[in-house]
Each structure stands twice: as C-alpha cells, then as structure tokens.
Design the sequence.
C-alpha cells in the first residue's frame, strides 16, 4: 500500500493538517502536499480509467507529465474538469472526483472493452469511419460516447474571474530549477531586467530530490541562498506557480499564473495570463523521465522512478512497501537508495544493462540491495494494483526466471529534455545517442526579428543531465542571454559534486524478443491506450510518417502532447520501419506546454465587457423605452420597441403599420458616414462606386454600389455632393469601418498621388429617419427650414435648422414612404430625438426598430447587403445594372465582372416570391429542381434571401435568387421547408408595395 | 506575434496593432487585361519559405499602410518602408542580398 512515512518530507508541514474529499470520501493531507501526494498518503492509487479500454489507472508521475491521474475539482461554478492531481496543490476543503468511469471507479463496466480489445486496434476510429454509416451512428458512437472521453465540461457559469497582464524584460527564464536559478543569478548581476518563472510552488526543481551537493552543501542550501540573492535584486522579478505555456514570434511568451487556486472565492483572480515580450528567453525546463515498455506497465503501482523518489523526499509518501526498481540507467538507483534510506524495502533492482558498474549501483549494492543485471520484467502482475513482477532476461523472449512479489514498480527508461518551449517557435533538435534523447540543436535556434537566436536552452532541458553540468550550462546561458540583450555578464557557475554516472542503454521493448502477447500489454500512451502493438500495426499498414502515425493511433494526443509517450513511441515506429530514430524524427511540439484554462485566455473579456459596445446618442432613451436590441457589428440597435402585452412580432407589425399610416422615427445614427474631400475626390469615387459620382450636382444625392475587385457587391448607400470638392458617402451600419479602410487602402497604396482625404464621421453625427405620411408635418412644426416638395425634392439635401437644431436634411427613403433623414451633431442627438417625439405626438409618432425597417424595405424590393448578397453576388444578379456606369473605362470590380462565368445567363437572379397559401417561406429555403448533380445531391435552381410576413399586405413576401430571374415571373416553384416538405410559391416582381412610388412623390 | 516598426510614426508595433494586407508590390490589372493577367493579380500569391514582401496597416496607430520585408521561416525582419514605393528601397534589397545570397529578387 502507499502511505505517509513517519519522518522526512521537505515540502510538508506536519503541524498543518488539511481536509479534502475524493469521490465524496473525507481524507486528510498536509499543508505543502500536492493532491497526488495526499491521495497516495491515503492509499488512493486508483484514480481513473483509460480512454478506450477503461483499464484501471493510477498515478504514474509527479509533475505535469502525469497522464492518468486527472480529476474534476470543485463544484458548480468552480468545477474544473481534467485537472492533474500532480500539479494541484492541496488546500483545506478541496473536492476532487474521478472521471471517465461508469458506474463507479472500483467497478467499471467499460472494462468489458478489454475483451473487445482485438476489435479496437490502432486506427480504430479511422477504420470505423469507413464502415457503413448506420453502424457508426447506432453502434459505435453510442458506445464510445458513454464509455470514452475525459471530464465533462462545466455547466454552471464560472464563478471565478481571470485577468491578463503584460510585461517586458531583457531576459525571461522559464524554469526555476538549479539551472534556471543559476542563469538568473548571472543575468540578474548584469543589470538586465530579468523575469524568472517556475511552474511549481517551490524553487529548485529536482536537485534536492536527487540529493545533489552544491558548493559542498545539500542543494537546498544553495537554492535558498540563490532565491534570497535574486529577491534582493530590483531588476529581477520572480514568480512561482507560473507556467511558461508558449514561445511565439519575436520573443512573445504566454505564461499562466495560478493566483487563487488554493483560496477559492478570496476575491483575487483565479489565474493570471502573462503576456510577456522578452529580448531573450532562457528555457530551463528540465527533463521528463520515460517509462519502459514491458507487459503490464500500466497497472496501478507502476510509476516513474524519479517520481517515486520525489514522493518520498518531498512529501514523505511511499508509493509502496516493496518497490521493484527497473531501469536502463544509473539515475534510478537514486530511487532505490532513497527508498531504503526511508526504511522501505526494495526487493530487487532490475537493470537491463548487461554490465552494471557505476558509482550509484556500487552504493546500492553496498547497502545490500539486490541488483540483477541484464534482466527485464517479463510481466507485471495485478489488476487494480501491482502484486508482483516476473523476472526474465532482457536478451530473451520473456521466459520467467523468478517471481518477485511487490506492490510498486519504479521504472526508468532514461530522461528526455523538455524541448517544447525551445521548439514552439522553430528551434530544431538533434539526437543524442548517449542519452537516447532529442535535445536542442544550438546551431538551429528559434530566431527573432534580428535573425539571431532568441532562445537559450540550459540545464537538463539542454541535455546537461548532471547537477554540475546543469549549473555550468545555466551560468553560460544566463550570460549569453544577457549579452545578447545588450549587457555584459560573467558566466560564473556554482560547483556541484559530480558523481560519475555510467552510460544508459537504450531499451525500447522489454524483453527485447517479446512476442505478440506481451507487446499487446505494453502501453506507450496510458491516456490514449496506445500500445507497442498498435504502433507496429500502423507501421505494417503503411504509416511511415511519425505525424501520421500519431494521428492514426492517437499516440501522444490529448493532454500528453508527447510528454511521456513520444520517444518510446517513435523508437518503436523506427524499429518497425527499420530506420534510425533521428530519421523518423519527432512530432511537432505546439503550445501550450500544459493545458491553460480557457478562462485565463478569455481574461476579463466576458459578460458585459466581452467586447466594446457602440451606443448611439439615443441609446439610453431606447433602453428606457424597453427596446429589444440586436447586435449590428459592435452596435446595439433597437430591433423593436414592444409595448406591454405585445410579443416582438406584434410590436414589429404595429411599427410597420404606424409608419406607413402615420409617422415612424428610426434611430439611423449607426449608418456609416464618410466624408471624401479633395481635388481628386470625384475621380476617386468614380473608381470606388460602379456608378458616376463626379457628375452629381452639389445639393443632390445618388444611390451607389461598391464592389470588390472580383466584382462582387460589397456595400451600398446614398452619396451626397456637399460642395465642389466634398462628398458624403453613406455606408451600411456594419460596413463603415471596413469601407473607410478600403478607401484608405486604395488611396495610400495604389493612387497615392491623388489628392483626396477621407474622414469617418459616423460617430460625429446622430441621424434620425423621419418616415411616413406625416413626416413633413412634424418637420414643419419644428420649423426653421423649408422641407416642401418644391424646395427639397426627393434625392436632395439641405442644411438649415429644425426646432433650433443645426440640421442637414436628406430627402431619401428606404421604406418607400415620404421620408427625411436628419443629421444633427451627436451631442444634440438625444435632444433632437426627444423633440421629434414631442412634436410628433399629435401626428402619431412612434419609434420603430430594425425589423420594421427590414420589412418595409423588402416590401419595396430594396436589397440589403448581407441578405441579398453573400460575397458571391454581382450587382447584375440583383437587377442593379442601372446603377453601373457603361461609360466609365474602369471602376473597382469592373474587370472582375467581365469574367465569362459572371455573364452567364444561367446565374441565379433576383425575383420576388409569394406563397400560394400566403404563408412565410422559411429562412434559408432552397428551390429544388429535377435531377441530381455530379455528387448525387439534388439539383437546385434558387434560394430565398429575404422573407417576411408583410403586415401591410397581410401575407408572406420574399425575395430570392432564381435561375432566369424576372423572366420567371408567373411560374410556380417549390421552396423546401425545414421538416423536409415543400411549399409552393409564385414568382413575382420584387416590388410588392407602391410600385409607382406615389407614396414618396408628395 | 510579430513586431514591426511603422516607418511613419516610428512605433514598434505589435501584431495586434496591425492589420495584414498580404503580398506587396502587386500590379493591378483592370479592364482590358487578359484572363491570365487578371488571375495573376487576383489570385496567384507567392507563399515563399523565406524572403517575402508584405503589406501591413498600422490600424490601431497612425492608420498608415506600410510594407515589410521579412523571412517567413526565420521571422527575421529585414526592414519596413512606406507603402508609397514602387519597389523596395535599394539599400534594403542590398541588405537582403547580403544576408540571403540565394534570394532571387522581389518580383
Ligand atoms: Zn504608425
């Protein structure tokens, strides 16, 4: 069993007991424990089930590489799925629950998948995708959905808050082990601005666990001194619990700081996302131990040797009473020694190397520990917990020499540098044969804006595997980074005692000649249930690329991201392909190094401040008058103003009828307004619009269309000629910024010799559409300028005052009614709006919203950008050829429109539609036609683009695109319905209301 | 995220302050151009692993468009210059040639 030892534990405080729960069971741990240590202290080794076969899964590691021990933490608004117990700090009141088991952790019916294992080989997902669809839908998906998958997404709103913070430094050091500390001491002494980030809750990394001796004293002494020295330097910032998640272009680094994980609800942000710009980055990210591939290496109780040692030294927790150590290197002997020193039993060290000579083995032997050289584990015994191992020769096929009973196995397949952060931005790797690992290739570093190296790897992360080498490397790296950032630094390193270690021996399968039965029990990836046999099968099926094999077998996917499984997996692949490991290469390392909470990435961008909102000067009035808002770009516009007892549809219909019979007022302030001015402004607008704007007389308005260079319609609006060299261009509400940028692009980058200035004055002006038969009356009542038919006819504008407000009045109409759009300075918008309502009361004035606007424009057959257009529509498709100048030699989009397929008579064109039964055609409906296309799909001949119930005409009306367009008037066609049926509709003229324009001609 | 120096206002702008405008030094083909010319202008874009000329706009800054020469592979930035340039400045071309002897020119 695993238990708490009576002595030791450098990180725990035995006087501070903390209560927590696991699956509802109350347990006790100690302050300083990781959740993993506290669980092990309570003999809770079994923590979950594997993804595919639901095999029992226990703790394997002690850090972020942990593949199995992943739990849900907290509850309700503070529930977090998929949290590693190894990187979770214990606190009083912590609640944890296992995941991926059904119905219970101890008894899991998913284990039945074990007997289906031969039906679930590597590539299972891909193969089933090619099986009949019905089988996937009715058979595989329900089974997989219930039995597979990790934690459940939280359903409650996140009760915590998160924040982003920005920082800049000369030298950013990622990792606070001895190499990182040493680099920080050197860089800090140079005067450079240094940031030192460590993902764990303590400094020093593994050195104290390994028993390293620095400057003649235990590593802890040197670490404490270093931390104190650095803390006293004003130019050094140090952060614990802060993980460097990703290294990006030009020294940009993302890091996630755990701020209030152990003090939920204390008011501080739970996590803080650091967005750092560094001149130089030092990766001191350490190394991760590799498992060994022997049969049963996934049974709970089989752990990484270095992790076993870490639990004993840091937390005084023993994973087992009798621990067999299995290794291919000297380092694992430290675990055996630590276990025996802690009073525990190590029945045997199984060493795959045929000759074992180093200092550490000598020390172990001197302590009386049995060492078996040239041996291997044939098989681990046990179900939910290790009960023993069978010993065999590494060189053989697994013939059992002896059974050894034990309750834990500490394995070490060697150590792999954590190269993730080095690799994120392009750093390349070389294969180090001595250590059988990939390490950073200093000759091919990630480079910055100056083309020079921007990342310096140090310590274990650079393949320097002893404390002595790591310190020297750390000092050199710290100095190199400081120098590259413009400081002079001296690479002075602390000296560590260097006990020589014998070479490790690469062992990828144990025993070497293992047969199929054993290989089908050798797990490479515990989380994704990928075994040696799966990778070999993938190779036999023709997967030669490591990237393809990864996706085919799911090796190293999900949260592992190549931390534990990478090297072992690609060694097996290389062997199966009869290639060398460096030729097969590694998969790509992508950020984040370890998962980052989505809340941290979102930061403060949630709820009301998810994005900036644009509000018109009348916005507060709309809110007071119960407007129901809809988003239009970043604007919020009233969709309708429902009255008590009305639903939205009733409110919209009332607004339409009232506008058409009395007086409607629309807040049109969001309409884009761009001033274009200068000697070449007319010439410029003639290029921008499909029509001619240069000939527009001062005082007049003209409707215009803008296309992109492909010829597709991009925006529309009314242009007013203000004076000899000034035009005001109205754009759609959502298009103002885009069109302004479009204008600037052409002016700055193509026609930079043209003298034209543009200004987006959208927010400088409030605009109100005064619409309906009583529109003139209300303006005349306000008084101040002549708005008569004679003085201000349709498509003209005039400056003046209305009710004392300085106003520019455009006589334009988007509804077909008598209509004025009145612009006043934004600061007067609300007062003007209120004055219109007060004066308009006797004329039946009512505000109306965007939906009434849409219905009225559809009743008139006016197109709407985004409804009738979708980026593939040319003006000619919408019968807008009249707005295209035939005389102009050039305009943006002209050449694009000349492409032959855009002139094809087969193109769908705009027409109106009325259902025979008066119903409303559904949004998105298609018009099917006979036959099938080349893909076997039903043919179509058109689709609806705008469809409404017209309260004016009391029936459904629609606009849409149909092959043949207006030539089809009178035809009866069928539109699809969402339920699979069709509805008959007649093709009609798209102008449904007041075809002769008499309403406006007053 | 790249950092590019705006040649107008001198700000070393982070990518979040900028809007990309894709390939620089394109020649516009309008009415009268052949299908091939129009296709080249509209659709055929360089996608080199190496030296590339790009358009960027300092949109959350001075609002100016500028051009940048950089290596898409190493992320080295050779220089930035105003959009009102028919060709990269000679000094910049010399600098790139010196650093990338195999470079075939910006066209
Ligand atoms: Zn600028």
Sequence:
């Amino acid at each position: 069993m695993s238990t708490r030892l009576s002595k030791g534990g450098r990180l725990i405080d035995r006087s501070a007991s903390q209560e927590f729960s696991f699956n509802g069971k109350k347990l006790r741990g100690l302050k300083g424990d990781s959740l993993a240590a506290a669980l092990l202290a309570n003999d809770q080794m079994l923590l979950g089930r594997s993804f595919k076969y639901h095999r029992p899964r226990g703790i394997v590691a002690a850090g972020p590489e942990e593949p199995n021990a992943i739990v849900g933490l907290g509850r309700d608004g503070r529930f977090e799925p998929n949290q590693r117990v190894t990187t979770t700090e214990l606190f009083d009141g912590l609640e944890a629950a296992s995941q991926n088991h059904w119905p219970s952790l101890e008894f899991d019916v998913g284990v039945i998948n074990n007997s289906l294992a031969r039906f679930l080989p590597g590539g299972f997902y891909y193969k089933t995708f090619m099986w009949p669809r019905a089988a996937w839908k009715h058979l595989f998906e329900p089974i997989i959905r219930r039995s597979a998958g990790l934690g459940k997404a939280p359903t409650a709103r996140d009760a915590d808050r998160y924040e982003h913070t920005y920082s800049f430094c000369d030298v950013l050091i990622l990792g606070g082990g001895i190499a990182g500390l040493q680099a920080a001491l050197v860089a800090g002494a140079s005067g450079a601005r240094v940031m030192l980030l460590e993902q764990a809750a303590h400094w020093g990394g593994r050195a104290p666990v390994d028993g390293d001796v620095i400057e003649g004293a235990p590593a802890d002494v040197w670490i404490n001194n270093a931390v104190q020295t650095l803390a006293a330097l004003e130019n050094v910032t140090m952060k614990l619990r802060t993980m460097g998640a990703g290294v990006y272009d030009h020294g940009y680094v993302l890091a996630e700081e755990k701020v209030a994980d152990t003090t939920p609800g204390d008011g501080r942000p739970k996590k803080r996302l650091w967005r750092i710009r560094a001149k130089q980055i030092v990766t001191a990210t350490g190394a991760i131990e590799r498992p060994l591939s022997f049969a049963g290496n996934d049974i709970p109780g089989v752990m990484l040797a270095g992790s076993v040692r870490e639990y004993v030294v840091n937390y005084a927790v023993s994973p087992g009473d009798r621990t067999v150590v299995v290794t291919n290197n000297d380092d694992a002997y430290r675990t055996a020694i630590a276990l025996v020193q802690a009073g525990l039993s190590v029945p045997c060290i199984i060493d795959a190397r045929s000759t074992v000579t180093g200092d550490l083995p000598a020390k172990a032997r001197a302590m009386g520990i049995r060492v078996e050289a040239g041996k291997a584990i044939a098989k681990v015994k046990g179900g939910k917990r290790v009960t023993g191992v069978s010993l065999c020769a590494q060189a053989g096929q697994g013939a059992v020499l002896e059974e050894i009973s034990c309750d834990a196995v500490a394995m070490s397949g060697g150590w792999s540098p954590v190269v993730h952060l080095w690799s994120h931005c392009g750093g390349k790797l070389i294969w180090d044969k001595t250590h059988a690992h990939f390490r950073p290739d200093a000759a091919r570093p990630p480079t910055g804006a100056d083309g020079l190296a921007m990342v310096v790897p140090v310590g274990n992360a650079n393949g320097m595997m002893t404390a002595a080498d790591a310190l020297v490397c750390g000092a050199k790296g710290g100095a190199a980074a400081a120098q590259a950032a413009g400081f002079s630094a001296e690479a002075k390193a602390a000296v560590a005692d260097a006990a020589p270690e014998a070479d490790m021996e690469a062992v990828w399968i144990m025993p070497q000649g293992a047969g199929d039965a054993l290989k089908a029990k050798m797990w490479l990836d515990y989380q994704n249930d990928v075994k040696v046999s799966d990778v070999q099968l993938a190779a036999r099926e023709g997967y030669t690329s490591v990237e393809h094999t990864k996706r085919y077998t799911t090796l190293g996917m999900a949260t592992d991201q190549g931390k534990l499984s990478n090297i072992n997996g690609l060694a097996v692949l290389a062997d199966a392909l009869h290639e060398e490991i460096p030729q097969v290469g590694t998969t790509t390392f992508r950020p984040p190094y370890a998962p980052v909470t989505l809340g941290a990435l979102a930061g403060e961008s949630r709820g009301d401040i998810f994005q900036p909102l644009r509000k018109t000067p009348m916005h507060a009035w709309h809110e007071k008058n119960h407007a129901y808002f809809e988003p239009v770009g970043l604007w919020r516009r009233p969709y309708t103003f429902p009255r008590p007892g009305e639903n939205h549809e009733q409110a919209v219909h009332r607004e339409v009828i009232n506008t058409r019979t009395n007086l409607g007022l629309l807040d049109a302030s969001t309409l884009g307004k761009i001033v274009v001015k200068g000697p070449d402004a007319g010439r410029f607008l003639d290029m921008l619009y499909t029509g001619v704007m240069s000939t527009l007389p001062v005082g007049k308005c003209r409707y215009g269309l803008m296309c992109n260079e492909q010829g597709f319609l991009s925006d529309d609006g009314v242009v007013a000629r203000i004076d000899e060299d000034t035009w005001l261009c109205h754009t759609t509400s959502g298009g103002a910024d885009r069109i302004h940028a479009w204008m600037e692009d052409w002016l700055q980058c193509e026609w930079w010799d043209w003298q034209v200035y543009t200004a987006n004055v959208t927010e400088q002006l409030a605009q109100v559409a005064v619409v309906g038969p009583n529109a003139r009356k209300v303006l005349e009542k306000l008084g101040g300028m002549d708005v008569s038919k004679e003085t201000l006819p349709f498509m003209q504008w005039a400056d003046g005052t209305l009710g004392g407000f300085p106003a520019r009045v455009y006589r334009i109409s988007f509804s077909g009614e008598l209509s004025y759009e009145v612009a006043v300075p934004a600061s007067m918008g609300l007062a003007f709006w209120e004055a219109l309502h007060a004066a308009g009361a006797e004329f039946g004035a009512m505000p109306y919203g965007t939906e009434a606007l849409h219905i009225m424009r559809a009743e008139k057959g006016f197109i709407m950008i985004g409804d009738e257009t979708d980026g593939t529509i040319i003006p000619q498709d919408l019968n807008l050829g009249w707005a295209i100048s035939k005389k102009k030699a050039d305009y943006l989009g002209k050449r694009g429109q000349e492409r032959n397929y855009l002139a094809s008579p087969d193109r769908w064109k705009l027409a109106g539609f009325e259902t025979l039964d008066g119903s409303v055609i559904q949004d998105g409906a298609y018009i099917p036609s006979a036959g099938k296309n080349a893909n076997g799909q039903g043919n179509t001949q058109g689709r609806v683009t705008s469809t409404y119930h017209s309260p004016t005409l009391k029936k459904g009306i629609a606009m849409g695109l149909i092959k043949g367009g207006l030539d089809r008037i009178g035809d009866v066609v069928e539109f699809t319905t969402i339920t699979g049926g069709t509805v008959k509709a007649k093709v009609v003229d798209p102008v449904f209301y007041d075809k002769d324009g008499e309403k406006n001609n007053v | 995220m790249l950092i590019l120096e705006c040649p107008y206002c001198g700000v070393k702008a982070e990518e979040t302050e900028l809007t990309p405008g894709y390939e620089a030094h394109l020649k516009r083909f309008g009415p009268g151009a052949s299908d091939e010319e129009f296709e080249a202008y509209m659709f055929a874009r360089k996608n080199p692993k190496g030296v590339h000329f790009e358009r960027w706009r300092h949109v959350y800054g001075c609002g100016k468009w500028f051009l940048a020469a950089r290596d898409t592979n190493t992320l080295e930035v050779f220089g930035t210059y105003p959009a009102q340039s028919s060709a990269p400045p000679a000094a910049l071309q010399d600098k790139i040639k010196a650093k990338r002897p195999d470079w075939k020119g910006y066209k």
Notes: The longest helix of chain A spans residues 467-484. DSSP finds 25 helices and 51 strands in chain A. Chain A has a mean pLDDT of 93. The pocket of zinc ion is lined by residues B 6, 8-9, 11, 58, 61-62, 64 (CB under 6 Å).
